[in-house]
Amino acid sequence: MQLAELRGAKISAGDEQKIKMLDKAIKAMEGPKTSLHLSVHKETNTIMIKVMDKDTGDLIREIPPEKTLDVAAKLMEIAGILVDHRI
């Protein structure tokens, strides 16, 4: 059972097939000593990929870096504030 189903969300057959294909692609990209974790940056709605060491759990690489997305989110917030004040 998938996480979305556990949360009560309904998944269409097409979406379920996409999820299975994505899981298969992730498993194909993982190495014997690495694992991949996908997440979404809340403020920018950008997909982040983290490459982790399976043995230690250490972060090897993050694409794009979360700090970069945090800066982008802050810039978007500032731009929004500037627009709000001018109106």
TrEMBL record:
Tree of life domain: Bacteria
UniProt keyword list: Cell projection, Cilium, Flagellum
Signal peptide: none
Keyword Ribonucleoprotein: no
Membrane-crossing segments per the record: none
PANTHER family: PROTEIN FLAG
Protein name (database record): Flagellar biosynthesis protein FlaG
UniProt organism field: Paenibacillus sacheonensis
